[in-house]
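for the recovery benchmark. tokens below, seq after
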């Protein structure tokens, strides 16, 4: 993260984005927009990759250069996701436990508010109602397990290979699944993290 008070006069300037990179980004965005529009209009399973490519005016070969699988068309591979996840642990307020910090992160980044943006709510409903997308989204999160476990170990003073850290990381990333199909998703996630909180407090060092 770049500080807003950084001295940009003495630091290196970011390289300008070239025409080729802009064109690639525009093509990727056009494909993603076409896919989401068709998915929301007709349902994920009712839309073929060929139809998406045609709607975006690209070949299927070009489509797969940008998105390795049909499921990937729905999700933006945000390179900052892991950084924000780790920051939730490393930059948590004094006195807040690691499970509590991860619970807050889950509630603010992985739970769609019922009164939120209509477009986001439609997207969330699409994912929640499509098993393939739910599984893909969860697997995307689980790829952060190792990095999260290391951050937990560093913050709690435990060894990097302590199984407690790996277990908490895995369970914390899995916990939001408790919201699927639940009448009160926020309560479901909160209760799942309460279980992690109590177990962690009993087994880890007090300052963790």
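predicted aa per position
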């Amino acid at each position: 993260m770049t500080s807003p008070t950084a001295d940009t006069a003495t630091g290196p300037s970011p390289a300008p984005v070239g025409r080729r990179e802009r064109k690639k980004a525009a093509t990727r965005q056009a494909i993603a927009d076409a896919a989401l529009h068709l998915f929301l209009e007709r349902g994920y399973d009712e839309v073929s990759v060929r139809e998406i490519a045609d709607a975006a005016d690209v070949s299927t070969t070009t489509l797969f250069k940008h998105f390795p699988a049909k499921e990937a068309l729905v999700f933006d591979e945000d390179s900052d996701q892991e950084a924000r996840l780790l920051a939730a642990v490393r930059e948590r307020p004094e006195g807040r436990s690691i499970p509590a910090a991860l619970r807050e992160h889950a509630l603010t980044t992985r739970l769609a508010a019922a009164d939120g943006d209509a477009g986001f709510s439609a997207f969330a409903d699409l994912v929640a109602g499509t098993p393939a997308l739910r599984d893909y989204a969860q697997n995307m999160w689980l790829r952060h397990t190792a990095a999260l476990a290391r951050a937990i170990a560093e913050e709690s003073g435990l060894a990097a290979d302590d199984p407690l850290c790996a277990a908490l990381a895995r369970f914390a990333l899995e916990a939001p699944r408790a919201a699927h199909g639940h009448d009160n998703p926020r309560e479901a996630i909160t209760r799942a993290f309460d279980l992690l909180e109590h177990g962690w407090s009993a087994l880890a060092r007090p300052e963790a």
